[in-house]
Design goal:
The protein is of the alpha/beta class. It folds into two domains: 268 residues, Rossmann fold, CATH 3.40.50; 62 residues, no CATH class. Helix content is 37%, strand content 22%. A nine-stranded mixed beta sheet has the order 2-1-4-3-5-6-13-12-9. Strand 10 and strand 11 form a beta hairpin. The protein is globular.
């Protein structure tokens, strides 16, 4: 079934993806149709890649469900001139989102600048979106930093700094039964890239249900009903493409070579095979001995790329398929609840 994305003409970037960009969608509001919003707050360099990752995952998970998606981004996220222009041409204003209803919304994180998330320049807008989503969606997905912001906003759960970046692909075990993890593999493999975490004991104390957990990475997927919406939180990144962690690792290496960080970054856990790890270890020795940006030209990216596999795709598609089915079920229940309410009123 089609995945249609509002605003902007179709570009070469979208060719062959199985979905298209349109100016409007009319007459597609049946039982097998969902209206979704993607609030993309990623830094400039990742904005368009993040679109492709989420829409690719949704297209793979949809099967017989048709999806109409609309793009938004929070005001206050630092932007350069090019990205500001791109968002103006392809994204809708948050004020428009707050005046309508969607079946579901996905809110991405961004790169934090403040230890206290409430001090970020986009915080007030993000808080408004969280409050809006409780009343105007069937389900809300909060990704990585957005998950941390969500539990901070509604339950005052703070995030805890990690000694090292939690970076790589980790195996998680299911905890109990839930529609979102029904039929998924066990263990569930998921990528992570973060410097902070929210911990299981704090979540359980505030009524959250933890669905997946890793001995190395901690909690990943957890949920809580908030008014009309099931809030779905990922500390990891099921949407990531097979090269995303490599790009992040190369970026961190570049920051080390430019003296923007003191320590050489850790190789992503569970991501590279033995041959690729050997190449990267050899480059690290060279980089630490000759710490300057020019040496990045010798980074063995092309030799490593061919060894990469998206080992989490099956798990990610399964969870997102269940999420879409959950919203279809909620949509089917809505007319019945309205009819029962009318009978009760009579």
């Amino acid at each position: 079934m089609p995945l249609l994305i509002d605003r902007g003409g179709t570009t070469t970037r979208w060719t062959g993806t199985g979905y298209a960009r349109v100016d409007s969608v009319q007459g597609a509001n049946g039982a097998g149709h969902l209206e979704l919003a993607l609030i993309n707050n990623m830094p400039d360099a990742a904005v368009e890649d993040t679109e492709m990752q989420f829409f690719g995952l949704l297209a793979a998970a949809a099967e017989r469900i048709s999806i109409h998606a609309r793009l938004y981004s929070l005001p206050g996220v630092p932007r350069g001139e090019r990205t500001t222009s791109y968002l103006a041409s392809n994204y809708s204003a948050i004020a428009e989102l707050l005046n309508r209803r969607f079946d579901g919304v996905i809110v991405t994180g961004t790169e934090p600048k403040q230890a206290n998330l409430r001090q970020e320049p986009y915080w007030e807008w993000l808080a408004q979106v969280m409050d809006w989503a409780e009343e105007n969606t069937s389900s809300t997905v909060l990704s990585c930093l957005a998950a941390h912001a969500g539990v901070l906003h509604t339950d005052d759960i703070g995030r805890n700094p990690l000694g090292n970046k939690r970076f790589g692909v980790f195996e998680h075990r299911r905890k109990g039964q839930h529609p979102l993890t029904q039929g998924t593999s066990d263990p569930i493999r998921m990528p992570h890239s973060r410097w902070n975490e929210v911990r299981e004991d704090a979540l359980l104390d505030c009524g959250y249900k933890v669905l997946t957990k890793s001995p190395e990475a901690g909690v990943d997927l957890f949920v809580k009903e908030k008014k009309q919406s099931l809030f779905v939180h990922f500390q990891g990144h099921p949407e990531y493409g097979e090269r995303t962690l490599l790009k992040e690792y190369r970026r961190d290496v570049k920051r080390y070579l430019r003296h923007e960080r003191d320590d050489y970054p850790l190789v992503p856990h569970g991501y590279f095979d033995a041959a690729a790890t050997k190449l990267l270890d050899d480059f690290q020795v060279q980089a630490m001995a000759h710490r300057r940006e020019e040496i990045l030209e010798a980074f063995p990216e092309e030799d490593v790329v061919d060894t990469l596999q998206n080992s989490w795709r099956e798990s990610a598609t399964g969870v997102y398929h269940n999420w879409l089915q959950f919203m279809i079920s909620r949509k089917a229940e809505a007319p019945v609840k309205v009819a029962m309410a009318k009978v009760g009123h009579s």
